[in-house]
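Handout, section B. The chain below has 306 residues.
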Amino acid sequence: MITVKYITTFKFWKELFIMTAAMAIASAAVYYFMIPGKLVLGSISGLSIVISNLFGMAGITIKVSWVIMAVNAILLLLAWLLIGREFGAKTIYTALILGPLMEFWERVLPYTRLIEEGQTSIMGNPLMDLVCFVLVVSISQTILFNINASTGGLDILAKIVNKYLHLDIGVSVTVAGALICCSAFAINPFRVVVTGLVGTWMNGLALDYFTASINKRKRVCIISDKHERIRKYIIDELHRGCSIYEVRGGYSGELHMEIQSLLTQEEFAKVMNLIKSENINAFITAGNVSEIYGLWNHERRRNSAE
């Protein structure tokens, strides 16, 4: 739960600013690239465009931003109950400000001013609208996932599927998004719907790529006679854990100690600088790890930083 003590911390206000900035980017992508050309990708925003247009055909005017808020309200309850309070609380904030931020862009710079005569969208080409939208939204999603938040909507469904079915988030987004895209047959021609399906697939790939990049760690293996110096540095300075194994050289037959640790790219660079600056003889291998389960001392590192 959010407490008064937590609200007064620098971390809270920093993440609040980051979430607001990220959602300003996401709302701009929806307002300027999706709405003008009725481009329906696999997202709650895309579904909201379909619903808004269907009501419009029935003579009822409902803004897309209103529909987004209504659909997100249902999904936010699911996020709170099924995913977790921190993710749910952050996503509640980001989802609720998406609609108002779209209204903000509409007041500051309506997209009608940017559409040239004879064009139906800002870019004038559905494919270019698609590419621009995926690029801009991917930036927003990357920022939010990095602080355990999301843009809401389809990201919530993806998180639920990811948590309980253990599918990659990108795959979850693609499957759910494809179903939403198919609903666009009610308002858009076949060509536009297929464009949306391609965009959903691209978004899933981008999401998997950026998620893997965010979670990427270095699995570092170091064999050295000065293993104790390296071990103390990892534990006392970097505040990370490590494992030590006894290994025997296949050529020399000599016994050595090997240190294994999972580090961020920045921490790995610090270890390499230590080895270089102190002229430590070592045999080092490092590989990328994109998924970590179980204990990885986030809490200890956070407490040490504070």
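Note. The chain has a mean pLDDT of 80. Compare this with the example in section A.
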